Amino acid sequence: MVNANHGSGGDADSNGLTRRQWLALGSSAAISGLAGCGGNNPDEDVTLSNNPSGENTGGEGSPVTTELNIRAPVSWQPSQANINPFTDTKNTEFWMDYIWWESPVYPNANGKPIYWLADNIELKGGGCEVHLKLKENYTWWDGTPVTAQDLHTAQRINDYRVNMGPDQTDDSWEVVDEYTLKNVLSGPANPSLQKSAYLSPVVKHDYFKSWLQKYEDAGGENGIKKVTKELQEHTITLEDLTEKGLGCGMWKPTQLSPTMAAHEKYEDHPRAGWTNLKTFNWHLISEKQKAIQALNTGKLDMGDKTITQAQSNDRVEVFNRFGTSSIVKLSMNWNNEHLARRSVRRAIAYLLDYEELVKVIKTTQGLNYKPRPTVTGMSTKAANQWVGENFQNRLINYGSKSRPEKAEQVLENAGYSKSGGVWSGPNGSKVNGLTYLTPPWNIYETIGNYVSPKLDKFGFKNKLVIPSSSGFWKRWTDTHDFDMVNWFSGTDHPANAYTTVGVSGIGKYDEIAVTSKKNGSDCKVNRTAPELEKPRSNKLNHPIRPKYPKQVGTVGNGGSKQTLFPIKWGNIMSQTQSEDEVKKFAKKLMWYTNWQVPHIGFYDETRAFWGNTDKFDFPTGKVDGHPNAEATKQEHFSNSMEFFAKGHISAKTK
C-alpha cells in the first residue's frame, strides 16, 4: 500500500520483465513503496493479539461497537469503479485488491512472507521448482472453494496478456491437485526471495475461464492482442464483485457513495472469528486538511498518516511503531563532472547531518526515523542480518553527524579549492548550478528543503526542483535531467538492496547486458558475467566493472584491487540456495558502495499507526500468550489495512 512517502512507480516497464526483475521491482513496490509513517525501533519478539481458533478476541461481553471507520486517501467514485484485475485502465489503487481478494503471500515491512492463501511454499529440485500448497478453508463469496485452479487461471491469463502466451515465458505452471500448484522456473531461485514473490491476487476460474479459452483459441499473436484488447475493455464493478461472488477477502462492499464505501464482514472467511467487528466504513478523503478535520471531529478510528495531528489529539494515540528494511537516499548523476568524482560524493556524505535531518522531519511531519551511521546501501536491520556488525565496523565511517572539516579535507586532497563561497575543481570548474530533483511527496520535499541549503552554504551551489508528479517521472525515467535526486531502496535482501534492475538498488545496469539463452535444462546458478554493450550505465553514467580495493576500510586507491561484477553477483544472490553465499557477495557489494558512494542513505524508515485505543484493541508491541501468535507474528510488521483486513483489530467489550 503506497502512502504519502512514496509513489508506486518504478524504473522499468513491467511488460516482459524477467523473473529477477519482477522480484526486484516487486520488492520495491511492496516494501519500499509501502513504507509507512514513523516511529521507534521495533521489538523483534512481539506477537499479535489474534485468535486462529476462531474465538472472539474482544473478550467476554458485548462489543462497544461493531464498526471501524478509516480513511482511504484517494479521490474515487466507488459506484463507477472498474476493478477488472486484468485491465491497465482500472480506476482503483493496486492496494485495494488485497481487501476484496486474497493472494498466496504478501511481504511484510521487512520482506518476510505473510502466508494468506498459501499454507506452505516449498522449493525443490535445487530451487527450480516451487510447490505452493494452499489452505483448504478459503471460499469465494458464493461459497465455492478457492483452489489451485483459480490461481493457475490468473497466472495463465497474465502469461498471454503480458508475454503473448505461456510458451513465451521463462516459467511454467501446473495444477498438481485441488490445492497444490507447481511453478517450474527457468533457473534456481533463492528461497528467501522467492517465497515472498507470490503476491498476485487470485481470480475466480469459473468466471475467467471463458477468457482463458479465448486466448487458447486465438491462433497467433494478432489473435492474442485482440483478446487482450477485449479483456482490457471488460468492466467489472463492485456490485458484480458481490453479486457474482467474485471476491474472497474478509470484507464485502455493500453501500457505495462518492464519500464512503461501506463493507460488511464475510462471515465464512477463515479469519472472520478473529474479530468482533461487523462493518468497516471507508471514508474517501483525498485532501490532507479534510483528513485532519475528520480526525479532530472523531470521524476516524485509526490511520497511518497525519501523525503529528494524531499525537496532539486526546482521543487517539500511536498504538504501534516499528522499523522497516527501507532507506531513503540521495542518488547522484555521474554525468555531472563533479559528482562523477568520488571525492565530491564523499564530501557530501561527510557534510550532511543525518541526526539533524530526522529531527527536522519529526518536527514537520511527526515521524521519528533512525539516521544512517554510514554509507552501506542497506538498512541497519538488514545489514546486521546479512553482514553483521563486525564487518560494518571495518567500513569507512562517514558518521551520522555533520563533519564539515572532513568534507573540506577530502576535497582539498583531490585538488579542489574554495573561493567566494564556491568550490572549484582541479580544472577550475565551479560546483555551481547543480539540479537537485525531489519527488512532490511531503517527506521528500522536507528532505530537499533541508539538504539543498546545507549544500549551498558549504559551497555546492544548487537549485532544488520540485516538479509535478508527471514532471518528476519524466525527468526520473526518461530525460534523466537532474544532478541529484531523492529516492528510496527496499533492502530486505541483498539481491534487492544491490539490484541492477533499477536505481532503487545500486544502479540500472541490466539494460546494457547482453543476455544469452540458457543451454540445457540443468538447474544451476548462473555464475557467468554477461557481455556489456557499453562500459557505463545509461542512467547516472555509472561504471559497470570498476576496480576497487580488496581491503575493507581502505580510504584511497592503494593496495590490491578487485573488480566489481554487479550483474553476476546479483544473479548469484537471487538464485543460490546458500545463505552463506548471499552473505559473501553482500559484503563485497556493501564494501563497494561504502568506498564508491554511488548513493547516500539518509535514514532507515519506520511505520507508525494511531487509533482510538479506548474503543479498540489494536496490534501492539506487547507479547501475549496466544498459542498461535507465533505463526502470524510476521503480520505484526505490516500495514494498517492488513491489520483490519486480516482480522487483527477488535472492539473492546462492555
Automatic annotation (TrEMBL):
Q: Where is the Solute-binding protein family domain?
A: 112-500
Q: Which InterPro entries match?
A: SBP_5, SBP_5_dom
List this protein's GO terms for biological process: peptide transport
List, as start-end ranges, the regions of compositional bias called Basic residues. 537-548
For region Disordered, the annotated ranges are: 41-65, 534-555
Top-rank taxon: Archaea
Q: Which UniProt keywords apply?
A: Signal, Transport
Q: Entry's Pfam families?
A: SBP_bac_5 (PF00496)
- Alphabetized GO MF terms: peptide transmembrane transporter activity
Concerning its family, UniProt says: Belongs to the bacterial solute-binding protein 5 family.
Q: What is this protein called?
A: ABC-type transport system, substrate-binding protein
